[in-house]
Structures are given as C-alpha cells and as structure tokens.
Amino acid sequence: MLRSPTDNSAMRRSATVRTSVGFVVVALLCLVIADIQVTTVAPWRELGRLLTGLVTPDFSNPAAIGTALLRTVAFAFVGVALGASAGFLLALIFHLRVVRTLCAFVRAIHELFWALIFLQFFGLHPLTGVLAIALPYAGVFAKVYSEILDEADPLPMQVLPAGTGLISGFLFARVPDAWPHLVSYTAYRLECGLRSSAVLGFVGMPTLGFALQSSFAQGYYSEVGALLLVFFVLIATLRLWVRPWLVPLYVAVSPFLLGTGLPIMWGNVARFFTEDIVPAPLRHGEGWAALWQWFSDLLLHEALPGVWTTVVLTQIALVGTGLIALLAFPLISRHFTSRPGSVLGHVALVVARSTPEYLLAYVLLQLWGPSMLPAIVALALHNGGIIGHLIGRRSNEITLRPDAAHGLDRYAYEMVPRLYGPFLAFLFYRWEIIMRETAILGILGIATLGFYVDSAIQELRFDRALVLIVITALLNIGVDSLARTLRRRLRLRHMVNCEP
Predict the structure, then answer these.
(1) How many structural domains compose the chain?
(2) Are 389 and 381 in contact (CB under 8 A)?
(3) Which residue ranges traverse the bilayer (predicted)?
(4) How far apart are CA 395 and CA 339, in angstroms?
C-alpha cells in the first residue's frame, strides 16, 4: 500500500521526536550516575578573579604574546596546508575501501593524541606539532573534498570533447564547479587549525596554549585575559587578514616561524617502532598466554572503564550542546534580534565557538575541581556555539508571512519546527567530534580514555598507550557510523561545505 507524502512526513516527524526523546532520556540517566560535584573551596571567588583578569588584560609583555601568536598561526598554516594537500590527493582515490578505512582511522584520533605519540620520538620539535595537525586533517579533508567533488555538476565532464585527458578533464570540468565549496571548507578548517595549534601548547609546543597554561598556573589572570582576547580577535578577524591572494605568502613564510626546538634523535624513532610499542609479553619473550593475560588486564581495568566514562560524558554533553544551540540561535537571527543585538549575539557565539573545549575545560577544572562538570560545560558551550551559529544563519534564509506570530510563539511554532531537521543533522555530525574531545579531556584528569592513555605514556608504557588509542579510534568510528545511520533513516541533510 502506497503512503501519501503527508503520511511519510508525519512518520518522519514521529521518528524524529522519538529519537530526540530517546537521546534526552539517555542523557538524564547518564547524568544520574555522573560525577558533577564542585570540589574547590571558593569556586566563585576564583571565577571572579578570572573575569576581572578578562576585563583588565595585561599587555605589558607584547613580545611574548606576539611570539606565541605567530607560532600558533604558523603551526596552523603549515599543518592545514599539508593536510589539505594530502587530503585532496586522497580524495581522488577515496572510492577505494582501503583509502576510506585509512582516512577514517587517522581522523578518529585527536590531534593531541597524535602529538603525544610524535613527542616520544621527535621530542619538542616543530615536526611534532605540524604532523599532529596535518595527519588527522588529511583524513578529514579527504572525506569532505571527495563529497564536494561528487556533488559537483556532472554536465561539464559529459560535454568534454573526445580525447580529453583524465587530468585535464578533472581540473577544467570538475574542480571549477566545486572550487567555491572547496575554498569555503578549507577556510573553516583553518579556523579549526588555529584552535588545534593553540591547544598543542598544553603538551609543550610553543603556542598560545603553552603561554596560557603558564600564566594560569601562576595566577596571572590579567595575562590570561590578554592571551584569550588576542586569540578571540585572531579568530574573529580571520576573514579580514586571510585573503586568497595572501595565503601562498602565509604558507611560504610560516615554516620559518615555527622555531627550531630540540634536535630529532633518530635512534628514538627506530626504538619506538621496534621495541616501545611491542606488547611487553612479546618483547620479553613470555609467549601468547602472557599476551592474552596482559591484554585482558588492560581491557578490564583501563579500556572498559575509560569507554564507559567517555560514553556517559559524551551523551550528557551532546544533549547539553543541543539545548545551548536551540537557545543561542535567536541571538543572531533577524527574526528575533535587531541589528545591534545581532552584533552582540555574533560576538557571544564567536567567543563560544572559538574557545577550544580543552582550553575551556582546563580553566573550569581550576575553578571547580576535578569532575565531569567542567568537561560537560566546556563541550556544550563550544559545540552549542558552533551549531547555534549555523542554525542562526539558516534561520535568516527563512521568509515569514506578514502576519506571523511574534516572540515565544514565533520561536516555538514558526522557527524551531522548520530548523529542527538541520539542527539534528548538525548535532549528529558533532556527536563523533564531541566523542573525540571527550576522550582527550582525560589528559586533564577526568577518567575518560585519554586519562589512561596519558597515564600509560607518563609511565613509558607505550604498548598499552597505543592499544588504548586504537580503542579510542574504533569507538569514534563506531559513533560516526551510528550518527550517519540515524541521519539517513531520519532523512536529515545539511550542506557539506557548512561544517567539517
């Protein structure tokens, strides 16, 4: 029996409602068992000191701030340029299963995990920071570039004269149509690269994160305020100083601004691959029975607890992200705010989406103490700011009737129903990204998978760390696959060039 379009639409709405309610229920159950206590003695006093520092920034050391800023930009440009170049080449053969699998694996591992790996054999060398950004970004670029190229208009390729070479046809028929989307997406990834570059400072690279961590540890909140304001201005003005004709110059100059760092000990590289990452029982010749016992102990006491905590925190943060996005998008929507109000809304969302989750979680941990609460708030604010910005822009494309409702009725009955599909699509896309960030926040002391990875590296047990990183990647790949399935079943679509 054929169903009418109205019946199909009603079924999709019903499935969307059931899915949304299911996620909220799961998040509430996770919240019941989550550790969200504030353990510091005077959290509000420390927060007041931090806010005072933000409004009284100390720019008395411009040389240090400028150096950290330049190196943050340099690592971002070099890493993103290498990642985009490799990703474009991989996009041409992305139809091969082995390439898709490889790209899925490398992009499922967070930049900080890659940095921790490279630190073991490259040390504090610029190559560590560059590769930590370039490698996962290459996997992301390959996937998105291939989607953009596949969605390009096929007609120009079909009308090419006989005898046109494959490369010539690709460059002159497929690329021009996709070029605006390729450029738009690459510009977005550059903003992401700046955030990634800043966060690399927390593992020792000489970027803004290193300066922020040093100033915060010493209680110099005015210096923290100055560094944060500089970073926010850097992100907010990205479109003003990153002009297409200037990008080749930036990429050419950036390698000379990375610094020198410590020399690479190539013996450490060889030892890492031939000894350090070999499971201890095999390295010591203890046999397969000992290897199984070693793996079972790792799985039971570290991997499974880490996976459980990572999933619990992710689900709470995912629903928190959705709530913040739904509350935030009217801040920049022409249907709810005036021009001055929209400007203030844009500033608020720029701050939220420009502040890396890791950095925000680090600050909140110092204020509230070690629990899941700082991580939940950091993840929800950052990702909610991103989705709120995207949905707000989408709302500005909607034209309402002259007699449309106003105020809360407009929000609840006119805008949210029309925007809920794109909202869920973006939210499900961010699900895997939130999972990646949740895992890495364990380095700050929260008992997610990153906590056990960092502990293993600190103890020089790289074999255990590598297994845990692989488990982290597989978990991220699984969540990404589940999110794609949900988007497909609910028939949720969003423009690929709007979001990584």
Answers:
(1) 2
(2) no
(3) 21-44, 64-92, 112-135, 155-173, 194-212, 224-242, 249-266, 307-331, 433-453, 465-483
(4) 15
Average pLDDT over residues 463-487: 91
> Is residue 36, in this structure, part of any structural domain at all?
yes
pLDDT digits (tens, 9 = 90+) for 302-313: 999 999 999 999
Question: Which has the closest alpha carbon to 441: 354, 343, 326, 356?
Answer: 356
CB 255, CB 78: distance < 8 Å = yes
Residues 159, 218: Cα–Cα separation, whole Å: 66
> For the ranges 116-130, 218-232, 483-497, which has the lowest average pLDDT?
483-497
> 482 CB contacts (<8 Å, ≥6 apart)?
431
Name the residue range of residue 64's domain. Answer: 59-276
Q: Do 399 and 333 have their domain in common?
A: yes
Listed residues 248, 276, 304: the one ending a domain = 276
Q: Is residue 1, in this structure, part of any structural domain at all?
A: no
Q: Looking at the structure, tell me whether residues 364 and 437 fall in a common domain.
A: yes
Burial class (CB in 10 A: 0-12, 13-18, 19+), 5: exposed
Rounded CA gap, 333 and 396, in Å?
6
| 238-288 residue pLDDT tens | 888 988 888 899 999 999 999 877 777 777 778 888 888 889 888 888 888
Based on the domain organization, do 425 and 342 belong to the same domain? yes
Cα 84 vs. chain centroid, distance in angstroms? 16
pTM, full prediction: 0.87
Report yes or no: 344 and 16 within 8 Å, Cβ to Cβ: no
Of 10 and 141, more confident: 141
Let me know if residue 89 belongs to a domain: yes
